[in-house]
Amino acid sequence: MMEHPRLILRNFLSPDTCKELEFIHKSSSTVGYRPNVLSTTLLHLVATNSAHLIIPFIPIRERLREKVEEHFGCEYELFVEFTGLISWCKGASIGWHSDDNRDYLKQRDFAAVCYLNSYEVDFSGGLFHFQSGEPSTIVPMAGDVIIYTADDRNIHSVSEIHKGERATLTLWFSRDASHDEDAKLLKI
Ligand SMILES: O=C(O)CCC(=O)C(=O)O
Ligand SMILES: [Fe+2]
Questions:
Q1: How would residue 1 be classed by pLDDT, with cut points 50, 70 and 90?
Q2: Whose CA is nearest to atom 5 of ligand 1?
Q3: Ligand 1 within 6 A of 128 CB?
Q4: Overall pTM > 0.80
Q5: Bridge partners for 47 per DSSP
Q6: ipTM of predicted assembly, 2 dp
Q7: Is there an atom of ligand 1 within 6 Å of 99 CB?
């Protein structure tokens, strides 16, 4: 556990919540940061006059923050750095990486990836793998969440999507108050 600090929570989101978030994504997504990837960020929703659509995210962000702080023993220390719905279409994949592997991502301390739909039901391919430690493979299932440190103790990859669209709610948390997403949302 200390070597590869991570936490898997089953059924963290209800089926209705997953559907609601997928619906928001379908209505508001924009071309994402990688080929075959679409995203809907909270910043984008607020900046495009859809601020009412951020309401369902608020309690989920707080529940996740509490889980991360409790599990990793950093109560009241974390800020949400990024919140977004992300979907991957046929052809998308990502090789081995840690989530803080760029200079502009160094503030990221923890990642939480909530699966909104399910492997072999809504898409094929798209398995999540940790390079070392257990569990080594995560089969995405709607409602489940994986939480892990953003550093090189949790190098991971996602195999190519072959069919359908794979949807997640992805958050990163930071100890650095200057990267607080809430402050950015209030400035728009
Ligand atoms: O969607 C996933 O399962 C993980 C995606 C990922 O590794 C990332 O966005 O950095
Ligand atoms: Fe990642």
A1: low
A2: 158
A3: yes
A4: yes
A5: none
A6: 0.99
A7: yes
Pick the atom of ligand 1 nearest to 99's CA.
Answer: 10
Q: Does the beta carbon of 168 sit less than 6 angstroms from any atom of ligand 1?
A: yes
Q: Which atom of ligand 1 is nearest to the CA of 86?
A: 1
Q: How far does the centroid of ligand 2 lie from the alpha carbon of residue 111, in Å? A: 8
Q: How far is the CA of 126 from the centre of ligand 1 (A)?
A: 10
For residue 33, what pLDDT is reported? Answer: 75
Q: Rounded to an integer, what distance in angstroms lies between the CA atom of residue 108 and that of residue 165?
A: 26
115 Cβ below 6 A of ligand 1: no
- Model confidence pLDDT, tens digit, residues 82-136: 999 999 999 999 999 999 999 999 999 999 999 999 999 999 999 999 999 999 9
Give the residue carrying structure tokens 């100890």: 175
The number of the ligand nearest the C-alpha atom of 170 reads 1
